[in-house]
Design goal:
The structure is a homodimer.
Chain A (H helix, E strand, L loop, with lengths): L3 E3 L4 E4 L7 H4 L5 E5 L4 H4 L2 H9 L5 E5 L8 H14 L3 E6 L1 H13 L28 E5 L11 E6 L2 E6 L7 E4 L9 H17 L9 H23 L4 H13 L14 H13 L3 H15 L5 H12 L6 H18 L16 H10 L13 H10 L2
Parallel strand pairs in A: 2-9, 3-4, 3-5, 5-6, 6-9
Antiparallel strand pairs in A: 7-8
Helix pairs in contact in A: 4-5, 6-7, 6-8, 6-10, 7-8, 7-11, 9-10, 9-13, 10-12, 10-14, 11-12, 13-14
Amino acid sequence: MNNFAFYNPTKIIFGKGQIKQLDKQIPKNAKVLITYGGGSVIKNGVMDAVKKELAKSDRAVFEFGGIEPNPKFETLMKAVLTVRGNNIDFLLAVGGGSVMDGTKFIAVASVSDEYFGKEEELLYLGFAGAQTEKILPLGTVATLPATGSEMNNGAVVTKGTDKLPFFHKEAYPQFSILDPEYTFSLPATQVANGVIDSFVHTVEQYVTYPAEGRFQDRTAEGILQTLVEIGKKTVDNPNDYDARANLVWCSTMALNGLIGSGVPQDWSVHMIGHELTALHGIDHAKTLAIVLPAMWKERKTQKKEKLIQYGERVFGIKTGTDDERVDSAIAKTEEFFHSLGVGTKLSDYGVGEKDIEPILENLKKHKMTALSEHGDVDLNVSEQVLRKAL
Amino acid sequence: MNNFAFYNPTKIIFGKGQIKQLDKQIPKNAKVLITYGGGSVIKNGVMDAVKKELAKSDRAVFEFGGIEPNPKFETLMKAVLTVRGNNIDFLLAVGGGSVMDGTKFIAVASVSDEYFGKEEELLYLGFAGAQTEKILPLGTVATLPATGSEMNNGAVVTKGTDKLPFFHKEAYPQFSILDPEYTFSLPATQVANGVIDSFVHTVEQYVTYPAEGRFQDRTAEGILQTLVEIGKKTVDNPNDYDARANLVWCSTMALNGLIGSGVPQDWSVHMIGHELTALHGIDHAKTLAIVLPAMWKERKTQKKEKLIQYGERVFGIKTGTDDERVDSAIAKTEEFFHSLGVGTKLSDYGVGEKDIEPILENLKKHKMTALSEHGDVDLNVSEQVLRKAL
């Protein structure tokens, strides 16, 4: 097992009707900015429930809507001006991953003296993250199980065709209220995306090479087994509380730092996927469904032992030669994605051979030329992966 | 899945040589009290390493040794006086569960105005815990994988023949440094105890009744499978880093709130076990090894579905009638404890039929008359359990 530090101070408040805990989580006299997206939280009644709780104490409540999927720097900067103009001292993200991600950026950018007037530079600090001293406190009422943003300190923000990772050591939500019923009104395609996003977050921290992280492996496998068990069920039966609750909790646990502590991590699938979203507007999760099987086909040798373990423990593949077991594990993964109604080829999304070069150029521009747990996924490997995904 | 809140702000710093992170974790000008036990940390060099790190900044460092296994109220009150007399503002527990548990009590008792002069009352607040406002910050350098105290807000403190649970909502260590190498010098019997303690912590939150907590079940099973895989190995080969690292991490994860969130919990084995320690001085873990199999034999009906699931997923028991599978699961558990050199009968520890009545009286005195996930383990059931353990 590798050395690690694990720290995650977010308080999770999980279950039916837990919005009633909201009033206790935010200072009574706070000036709160509610951030949200395209308005689905207004239609499904979540916003009303949030406002009703906030009104139980003497708070000033402001709103900022319109944070789009793959939240844009320009949009978030408008929210930063709202924060500054109204002396907001608490941010409450009500929505999915993009709203939560965007709110983390707002929390850092709006109170940083160092980056005042050049907030854009905060987006190019890479995985080391912003080191600014101050950050506004934030909480979330999460409405989409997918990104794990409700219990981590990371975000992804888009500027032009740059889809950029953003971290700050203090950007953990103070609390996240996760009511599975708040996700019942999601369209099936977004639920399928959430299942795949959680699945791929997990395998990026697990299908690498053996490192004697037995708890980490078993926990990752537990998330994957659960997603396989309840994935199609929760897409097809949105009002099945238990299936959805299991998706919500697995999606949070898939990316809160726990399963990746002390073991190698990959993330090359995500990095290539980000360019597909930036250049072709394909949903984040669908880019993962495209790139993951192709990556594994290209990287069978490097990931052989863990792919065999994954096949056996997640899909029960116990017979055949090593190569057959690896192929079976990849095929079962593709079948699982297909069962959720999600295509796993670039051609399913209108992307062809001619589009590969611009993707590689973007990877180069973003310095994504030494990806994977071994740092050996260079542009040549990425090209082979994309060709296998055609 | 049941509603739940999960919150755990302890920073875990895990691995070889991580003591080097200590200086960064404690304020530079702090007045630190190092708490420790019988002195093994002096013999094995951990104390020297701790002091060397603390001396890197201008801190006043005090020491309080002699916290015994099953830490006594009277001992801890001496430490409370040391804290008050020297205006200590940071507590650093260096040792195992008893030292960490005792230090949590010291952290609360030494700064409570409400309980000043009547600190003993803090011990009789039950699972609701102390609600005092102030608590001294504490950190740990943990040297024994067993209790999970390094990443939770609970403790057990003994007064006379009362072995009492103690909680405070803020009693999480700010940080815990877990270096598996610091546990290499432990005697085999303590390592075996640690394996069993971690194992029983896990099953008390898992072998109850089905509640659609799939992540929780799989994670609990992952801990149990790992302990079965590495338990004997790490007892027999104390210097095997990876085996020990897996024990250390599993033992922390077994009792940090994660696997018990949103699912039923039992704890009746612990409560009966505590009386065996209080009255007969049997090691905590050994009391669990005695009571657990007897409890399961007595409660086969109530725990049938989970015992079958446990047998299948942890020990691979997939054939036989339901009753046979339940019996097999219990037998495999006993075999596992025996493989660690630990007896599972009261008679192994010189306790007989005549000792049952005083144990039941103690349970009654401590209001432990409605235990288990169903609240139906009364004194009659406890008596049957103890008879089955003779």
